[in-house]
Amino acid sequence: MLGTCLDIAFAVIKMSQFMANPTEEHLQKALHIVKYLGSTPNLTLHFSGGASSLDCYSDSDWEGDSETRRSTSGYAIFLGNDLVSWRSRRQPTVALSSTQAEYMSMCDCAQQILWIKSLFQECHLSLQLFMMFGDNKGAIHIAQNPVMEGRSKHIDIKYYFLRECIEKQIFMLDYVPTDQQKADMMTKNLTWQKFQDNHLRLNLLEFKS
């Protein structure tokens, strides 16, 4: 999941929450993941190379965990058309709204953007443009406007790191419709058709020799 099989990221993160005390149901679902991997041995990431722009897609599933009511964060980062970094994880605290959940997810993505930028600088390489896309206009508004509002005053101060990045113009933040959100499979279960559509958006394709 960490190296190549990003399509099982959400499932693996979900299953890892029950490693300490799994039930028979959890073992059956783990076996289902293994069977899926066995049925898709030729599903691979495709890379074209030659790009110098970074596009990042951040998403969350508000209150996706029915037991703890915590949300799931996910992001997918592309160098040109090539997916180079992804993540799915349960958020450390309960988000009080979908806007807060999306805002926290964007902050996670921003930290990874800074790491990639630092890596490129160490390698004496340049990136022309950093863009982050989210599908929650409320979270984007809070990040771009340094005004404390009623719906944002309860957000932990550490997440305003995102706002600082935008003020310093480290990257630009823009809206993307939910049906074009490339990080969708990192945060929730999808229908089979949407799951396959997400494969195409992520350049996760069948390898044909």
How does this model look, in words?
The protein is α/β, with parallel strands linked by helices. It has one domain: Nucleotidyltransferase, domain 5 (2-Layer Sandwich). 35% of the residues lie in helices and 20% in strands. The protein is built from 6 helices and 7 strands, in the order ααββββαβααβαβ. The chain has helices spanning 9-16, 24-39, 98-122, 137-144, 161-167, 192-201; strands at residues 43-45, 53-61, 72-79, 82-90, 129-134, 172-175, 204-206. Strands 4-3-2-5-6 form a 5-stranded mixed beta sheet. Strands 1-7 form a two-stranded antiparallel ribbon. α3 (98-122) crosses α4. The longest helix is centred in the middle third of the chain and has 25 residues, at 98-122. It is globular, with a radius of gyration of 18 Å.
List keywords for this structure.
two-stranded antiparallel ribbon; 7 strands; Nucleotidyltransferase, domain 5; 6 helices; 5-stranded mixed β-sheet; single chain; 209 residues; alpha/beta
Largest sheet: 5 strands, mixed
**What number of domains?**
1
Low-confidence stretches: none
List the helices and strands in order. HHEEEEHEHHEHE
Separation, N- and C-terminal Cα atoms:
23 Å
- The CATH class is identified as Alpha Beta
Portion of residues within helices: 25-40%
Assign the structural class, choosing from mainly alpha, mainly beta, alpha/beta, alpha+beta, or little secondary structure. alpha/beta
Please state the overall shape, judged from the principal axes of the Cα atoms: globular
Find the count of extended strands (DSSP E, 2+ residues): 7
